[in-house]
Amino acid sequence: MMEFKSGTVSIIGKPNTGKSTLINLLTDKRISAVSDKPNTTRNKILGVYNSQDSQILFLDTPGYQKSNKFLNRIMVQSSLQAISEGDIILLLIDATKKILPEDENLFKKIESKNSIVAINKIDLIKKSKILNLINKLSTEYSFIKSFIPISALENQGIDSLLKEINNFLPFNEKLIPDDIYTDQAEKFYISEIIREKLYVNLFKEVPYRTAVVIEEMIDKKKIIVIQSYIIVESSQHKQIILGKRGSMIKKIGLESRKDIQDFLNCKVYLDLRVKIDNQWLKTKDKAFNYSSI
Ligand SMILES: Nc1nc2c(ncn2[C@@H]2O[C@H](COP(=O)(O)OP(=O)(O)OP(=O)(O)O)[C@@H](O)[C@H]2O)c(=O)[nH]1
Ligand SMILES: [Mg+2]
User: Fold this and answer.
1) Which atom belonging to ligand 1 lies closest to the Cα atom of 16?
2) Ligand nearest to the CA of 32
């Protein structure tokens, strides 16, 4: 019999490189919010991949970007923590973007680990460009174990990626039972679904200045009633989220309810309200409380 392997793989990278898209694909679940806006993910999020001979605990992380704001500092901290927790580091790079001098910082952070680089979004560029990029990076960062071209959106290169991860996984027992695919409370994932809809539907700075709180979930046998709040800083932002005659909150509520129902596999009544708290991004404790798990 083949020996079982298991371990933790931390997915890190700059904002918008496709980390959450990849973890959702790998775990076959919609566990992490995805949007076309950078800095969508705010927390370290676990998703479990099970196969016959391995179990991989993937950690999705907030895009790595230095900033002095409370919220961004909390986000960077959780990325750094994920680097220290990973048996393997999977650094995601967006194939369509230039590698900048400041990116070296991120490579430096993973130099002492078993690190693999996945070049994502290859569906958007020419093969020759991908090869050039791999040549350049492998010369510059020779400590990287391998470079794998992938498309998380179109499910390309994922088998090669899993094979490469498997090479570096330690021989180990199963870490968690098969039916558990995450370590977070349901409430957290439900708040992530609503946050995703805010990012997808709202523009400019508005989604960045919101948080979502799930106050209560009541199981009424045939339906789950969820009481939730979108926290905003100002009445202007509240108006934007409500939209003309409530049309925007209605859209966000409908889209969220559909995904929450799929997630919980149960009918849901979603009570979604907007609450103003003009201090939430200005107070360290509040930014932490509304954003941490
Ligand atoms: N064309 C293409 N788009 C992709 C691919 N992977 C992700 N995207 C898109 O890239 C955008 C960002 O994806 P996310 O998964 O939210 O990226 P992220 O790295 O988690 O971003 P943050 O949480 O903000 O750090 C979304 O619009 C995705 O649909 C890919 O392989 N190809
Ligand atoms: Mg993300």
Assistant:
1) 21
2) 2
Domains and CATH numbers, the chain: 5-168 (3.40.50.300), 186-291 (3.30.300.20)
Q: Annotate the chain with DSSP letters as a single string.
A: -PPPEEEEEEEEESTTSSHHHHHHHHHTS--S---SSSS---S-EEEEEE-SSEEEEEEE-------SSHHHHHHHHHHHHHHHH-SEEEEEEETTSPPPGGGHHHHHHTTTSEEEEEEE-GGGS-HHHHHHHHHHHHHH-TT--EEEE-BTTTTBSHHHHHHHHHHHPPB---SS-TT---SS-HHHHHHHHHHHHHHHH--TTTGGG-EEEEEEEEE-SSEEEEEEEEEESSHHHHHHHH-GGGHHHHHHHHHHHHHHHHHHTSEEEEEEEEEE-TTTTTSHHHHHHHH--
Q: Is the CB of 19 under 6 A from ligand 1?
A: yes
What is the reported pLDDT for 184? 67
Tell me which residue has its CA closest to atom 14 in ligand 1.
Answer: 18
**Nearest protein Cα to ligand 1, atom 6:** 18
Q: Of 21, 35, 120, which is best to mutate to test ligand 1, by the most ligand atoms within 8 angstroms of its C-beta?
A: 21
Q: Is 124 in the pocket of ligand 1 (CB under 6 A)?
A: yes
Which atom from ligand 1 is nearest to the alpha carbon of 34?
16
Question: Has residue 235 got a pLDDT over 70?
Answer: yes
pLDDT digits (tens, 9 = 90+) for 173-201: 999 888 776 666 788 889 999 999 999 99
